[in-house]
Amino acid sequence: MALVEIRNLTKRFRKGDEVITPLEGVDLDVEPGDFISLMGPSGTGKSTLLNLVSGIDRPDSGTITVEGVEITKLSRGQLADWRSANLGYIFQTHNLVPVLTAYENVELPALLLPISAAERRKRVELALEAVGLTDRADHYPRQLSGGQEQRVGIARAIVAHPTVVVADEPTGSLDASTSEQIQVLLKRLNTELKITMLMVTHDPQVASIASRRLHLDRGQFIEADRPAAHAVTGA
What we know:
The chain is an alpha/beta fold. The protein has a single domain (about 5-235), classed as 3-Layer(aba) Sandwich (Rossmann fold). The chain is built from 7 helices and 11 strands. The strands form 2 sheets. Strands 6-7-8-3-9-10-11 form a 7-stranded mixed beta sheet. It has a 4-stranded antiparallel beta sheet with strand order 2-1-4-5, with helices on one face. Helix 3 (about 100-110) crosses helix 4 (about 115-130) and helix 3 (about 100-110) packs parallel to helix 5 (about 145-160).
């Protein structure tokens, strides 16, 4: 059984009198330890898919099952609890709280978990170590570079030991050199810590670090490294 199973997923939006359907009949399996990149033109549903997988949005039809839990059946409260324990989200803009230190920003998701203060401290320290920012724990966002801020955001995404991490253009606001550093970090977290990742990017170089690369083409997710017969249906 796949870690994430998406079946016949459809999402529609209404814009005035027009109905926009960025995703229609999408099927996708994500295996444990997968690192999947999603590419394609703007407006084709890539970020929408991330929001559905993370439980931020709901589909019009179809199912999403994560580690045996059909999240499309959960109530709003149940989804919030599930997301806290199982989902890490890396944003393009770091979304750090400016009045909190790097340590405190990383700690935020862990505060929602039923764990002891000692376990929470251990998780935060390990997350900061994983992204190479142990020596910046007491720094505020304004005292960090853009790359360091993104590392804090990544540490925050992994501190709860999530089942899956979704990343929406994680290098989109960074310069080329810093982007390369973040790419190396994401790849290392996947290969060494076995973190399952689903990433949207417009940059072919960033997409190339993933072990599976999907491209939205004429209403289908085409898997770049497999024959056309293994295309993943979507829209």
